[in-house]
Amino acid sequence: MTPQQPVQGISISELTEKLKLSRNYITRNITHCIPHLEESPSKGARVIFDETTLRDYLAQKCTFTRQTRRINLEREIQQFIASHPQDKRLQKSTFREDFIGKIPDWNKVKRSELPAIPLKATDFWDFPLIFSKEYTQGNESPDAPRKSAEICYRDMFKIGAIKIQLGRQKTMFYIPYDEGVCLPPLNQLSKINNTEETCFLVPADWKPFYQGHEAPSSKDGTISKIQITITADEKNFDQGLIEKALRKGFSLEHVLSHNISPADNQVSVTFQATPLVNTSSPSLWENSEPVDEDDFMQDYEQSLYDLKFLEDWDYLDCLDNLCDLEYDE
C-alpha cells in the first residue's frame, strides 16, 4: 500500500504568521473564496488552502503602489547616451541637471505631495515583507527603540519601497533591489545622502528629463472620497480591465473588499477612490462640483466602450450591471 502523501498547501496558521492576518479576517475574506483541502476528520479537519490559488488570489486582491524609487544615476545617464548618441541635449553644459529634471526637494517635500503610482499586481508570498506595526530601524538608528508606523512610512518613502495594501487596513511593504542600485541597510538609512549616484532618490514615475508629476496635493475637505462597487459574473470578471477604466477618472487608493458568491457565481469588488481634478488653478479646488452618480456611470461606461476598441477586448457584457456608487460623508 502506497503511503499517503502529506497535504501540500498553506494552513491558516501559516497565513496568519506570514501576513499577520487575524483568523477573523481570513474567515470573512479568504476561506470561502479559496479551494481547500482537509485532513482526516479524526485529526481535527485542519483546513489547508490550495497554495497556487491562494497566492494568485492574494495578488489579485492587493493594491500595489509606489511613491519613490532609487536609481543608479550614472548608469541611467550612460544608458541614455548609448541609446541617443545624436541627442543635441548631450552637448549642453546643463545636461546632467536637465537629465535629472524637476525632482522634489527631499528636505521639504511631504509624502502627501507625491502621487502613489499604481503597479502591476504580482505574487508576493515569497517577498521579505515589512509590517509597519513591527518596524524598527535597527540598533544604529536613534529611532531604534521605538516601534512606530509613522517611522515605517517615513523610511519606506525614503528608500523607495513598494506598498502592498490588502483590504482596508492591512499594509505591507517590500523593498526591491534593482540591478546596479546599492541600497543601504535600513539601520543606516538615516545617514545616507539622497543624491548618492548609486542610490539616487527619485519619484516613482521618474524618467530622463523629468518634468514633474501632475497629481494633486492632498487637501482636506475639498474632494470627497468615494466607494465604487462593481459586481459581475465570475467567469467573465477581469479586474485589471476594470481598474484601467476607473483610472481614467479616479485615483484608486484601496481595494476595500473582494467577494465571491458561490450561490450565483458573482464577483463583487469595492474600490475606495478619489475623483481626479485638474489642479492647474487653485480656484478649481474650491469651485469643484460634487461628482454626480449618473454622470459618472455614463462616463465610466464610455471609458469601457473606448477601451474595448483600443485594446481589442470583447468584454463589456459582464459589466452591464454596475452595482453601487457610494459617497463617504
Whole-angstrom Rg: 23 Å
Tally of strands: 14
* Assembly annotation: single chain
Low-confidence stretches: 215-222, 278-292, 307-329
Which descriptor suits the 3D outline?
globular
Counting structural domains, the number is 3
Reported for the largest beta sheet, the result is: 5 strands, antiparallel
Span of the ends, CA to CA? 65 Å
The helix count comes to 9
Beta-strand proportion = 15-25%
If strands are numbered along the chain, what order do they take across the biggest sheet?
6-4-8-9-7
Instruction: Return the average pLDDT rounded to an integer.
Output: 76
Helix and strand succession?
A: EHHEEHEEHHEEHEEEEHEEHHE
Helix share, percent: 25-40%
Q: Which structural class fits the helix and strand makeup?
A: alpha+beta
Question: Which structural traits does this protein have?
Answer:
disordered C terminus, Alpha-Beta Plaits, four-stranded antiparallel sheet
Question: What's this, in brief?
Answer:
This protein is of the alpha+beta class. It is about 25% helix and about 20% strand.
Can you give a write-up of this model?
By secondary structure, the chain is an alpha+beta fold. It has 3 domains: 10-49, no CATH class; 63-87 and 94-203, no CATH class; 226-327, 2-Layer Sandwich (Alpha-Beta Plaits). Helices cover 26% and strands 21% of the residues. It contains 9 helices and 14 strands. It has helices spanning 12-19, 23-29, 51-61, 73-83, 95-100, 149-159, 239-246, 283-287, 293-310; strands at residues 10-11, 36-38, 47-49, 62-66, 68-71, 117-118, 130-131, 162-166, 170-174, 200-203, 226-233, 250-261, 266-275, 324-327. The chain has a 5-stranded antiparallel sheet. It has a 4-stranded antiparallel sheet with strand order 12-13-11-14, with helices on one face. A 3-stranded antiparallel sheet has the order 1-3-2. Strand 12 and strand 13 (266-275) form a beta hairpin. The termini are far apart.
